[in-house]
Design goal:
six-stranded mixed β-sheet, single chain, globular
Length: 248
């Protein structure tokens, strides 16, 4: 498998859930609102024998020329948006689901960002997003997702997609958050979403106030880290500035 981090850059986020770009050389974290967290926004592309997979879709920001940033990041790596065959969604918080659609302001229309892909998300997460709403969820696009024949709503707590992608609902970060294992030719790639967002959190006991169940997050991270070391997993970290990919 080939793994391509699709970094959208560093941002700070506080209780307002607004993601503000952060220049790691010029900006001072202490000048941001109290309690601001510094995070990377980093979807991934994983190329397997049969698929080009995108895992989570970023913030949905555009480049200065109007190109969707996740599209440009893929193009920079020789992959066109039309080539993506699967999109896996850990959850639907706006920093993970903002790039589900490409909005064309001139035409006043929106299009699924990956027209030839099948999107996989959990039905319970969608239902919860409609209940919860802003500021964590931007549900303006979600009604269209419910009616799209490109979307597969997973309903079990765990299962397989095409025989080689495993998913499991963990909750912990949000009530219906899910994680993925992609397994091919003896290699296991693990994406823990926002339950396991950074390498440092895997190595230390850490309970975050922003998680739905911080203690469960901590316990799951410990379990995955120990198992990943035994089984030689490759970890993908969505919010890690320094280490997007870690291999044992």
């Amino acid at each position: 498998m080939k793994i391509i981090p699709l970094s959208e850059g560093a941002f700070t986020v506080d209780a307002t859930k607004k993601f503000v770009p952060f220049n790691k050389i010029e900006d001072d974290l202490q000048q941001r609102a109290r309690g601001s967290l510094l995070v990377e926004i980093q979807p991934f592309a994983v190329i397997t024998a049969n698929d080009i997979i995108v895992i989570d879709t970023g913030l949905g920001f555009n480049m200065p020329d109007g190109t969707l940033q996740i599209h440009q990041n893929l193009l920079n790596n020789g992959i066109g948006p039309l080539e993506v065959t699967k999109v896996l969604m850990s959850h639907l918080h706006k920093d993970h689901a903002g790039g589900l659609y490409k909005h064309d302001d001139m035409l006043k229309q929106k299009f699924l960002s990956f027209p030839n892909a099948t999107y996989y998300m959990h039905k319970d997460e969608m239902d919860f997003a409609f209940k919860k709403g802003a500021p964590s969820y931007d549900i303006a696009d979600f009604t269209d997702l419910q009616n799209s024949d490109q979307v597969v709503f997973l309903e079990e707590s765990q299962g397989k997609i095409d025989g080689y992608i495993r998913y499991e609902v963990t909750g912990a970060h949000s009530p219906c958050h899910q994680v993925f294992w992609i397994e091919e030719e003896g290699q296991t790639v693990f994406f823990g979403g926002d339950v396991a967002p950074q390498l440092q959190q895997m190595k230390n006991k850490f309970i975050a106030k922003y998680d739905f169940d911080g203690r469960k997050c901590m316990e799951l991270r410990q379990q995955w880290w120990e198992r990943g070391e035994r089984e030689k997993w490759t970890f993908l970290f969505y919010h890690d500035i320094k280490t997007p990919v870690f291999e044992f």
